[in-house]
Here is the input.
Amino acid sequence: MGAEAPLADTRSEAVEPGRELLSFRSAGKIFPDGTEAVRDITLTLRRGEFLSVVGRSGCGKSTLLRMASGLSPETSGKVERPLGNIGFVFQDATLLPWRTVQRNVELLAELDGVRRSERERVAREAINRVGLQGFEKHYPKALSGGMKMRASVARALTTKPPIFLLDEPFGALDEITRGALNEELMRLYVSEQFAAIFITHSISEAVYLSSRVLVMSPRPGRIVAEFDVPFQYPRSPELRFDADFAGIAGDVSQALRQGYE
Amino acid sequence: MTSQAMNTLDPAIELRGRRGQGLPRRLALTLGPPLALFGVFVGLAYLISYVILSPGRRWLFPPPHEIVKNGFLNGRHLHEQLTALWDTAQVSIVGLLIAFAIGVTVALVMSQAKWIERSLYPYAVLVQVTPILAIVPLIATWFGYDFTARVVVCVLIAVFPIITNTLHGLLTVDSELHDLFTLHHAGRIKRLVKLQIPHAVPDVFVGLRVSAGLSVIGAIVGEFFFRQGTPGLGRLLDVYRAYLETDLMMSSLLFCVALGLASFLVVGFAGRQLTKNWYEEGNR
Here is the structure.
């Protein structure tokens, strides 16, 4: 198998297009201290969908993502999760400082018990895919914020997850790096055909990347609006200056403001 | 980092041009101020010997060159002090290694459950607050008056910082990293080996550095009581005291200090070498 063979090959046979991968049915979460984090969330994520969730800090976006991954089980309603792996990308790159890039990217396969030669191969492929070739032997300390994030995405890619959950992954990066990584993520989404839930507080980022945008409002966190974004993938950066794009972004922005009144 | 935006487009840019200042300059900055202060101390010592003390009482505080002449340049005295130094060093190194093994083990056990930590921690504190001199006679009664007893004193005095620092390192792993391990169904052992133990390494060295100095103190304190077996620096000091040889007491004191300092520096250096690729200087 060549280095460019798609990581997605095992999954594309198994799942038909448009199949439901993940669903929330009136799911809610009340923390042990009595705080109601989210209430009555109903949503489905289908194969090939890129779903963004926007909302201010503290509106329950991250809780929603943790519920989707099973890290934080729902206390009411039902969340149906896939059995296989879920790719989780955190806001911080969460790399292990004592491991090189190569060994960091191997981590998840290692935890899953994949044998050494296989996980080395998978990690090398993922590193190439995010454009970090040549940095395999570097420690995270020597990488910039953007490069760390790429390594983090590469690590998630190694498990070939049908679903990616991204919790404000580029929130800590500067605007230019962020833009470049948006392009990269879009490219990966198109080539790997995973479904994604992407948490962000940037409206423009949400509209640019997503096929659907959900707007959340706080206390308790709930979904107050939903927008389809009809533009074809792959999208070019110029799309951000398109009038239709601005129209949708404006609608999302208005829904966000209304959610707070 | 000023060029972060560019890094993504050409990651190599970042890695260039990040050299520290020249080594000579760094050395001068590190060693200069304490050396200057050392000069002031030597001056003060002469002031005390020659100005404050009358010639008849000068033996109370011999001038620095007398200490050097009798303590370091006299072959017989040098030999007996170096022999004692080696003896004390052996005790403190063995004590430190045992304290390390016990301390890390106890911390690993404590990290496994809150109730274990709660059960053990008060006793760790007890070991720490027990005045070491008060317990030395008992140790002597139990373990005899030789090498073993002296090592036990070192272990008792050195184990606590290793326990607390290691435990801190094991328990302060980023919760998102724990989440990542949870998502991949990692059990206790995998979590410990691949996440918590490597994360605790810098903390273990923080503890070891403190304990290295303590272990030297333990070795010398022990000797004052035991006065049997091969003589270390502690016993030699006691002998010099009996003969009022202040110059040799001072030179032996300097050997004690040198031993403590050497342990501190060696452990610190080992820790830095091990983790230099992991964290930025001064971080973590």
Summary: The two ends of chain B are 18 Å apart (CA to CA). DSSP finds twelve helices and no strands in chain B. The CA atoms of residues 101 and 159 of chain B lie 9 Å apart. The mean pLDDT of chain B is 85.
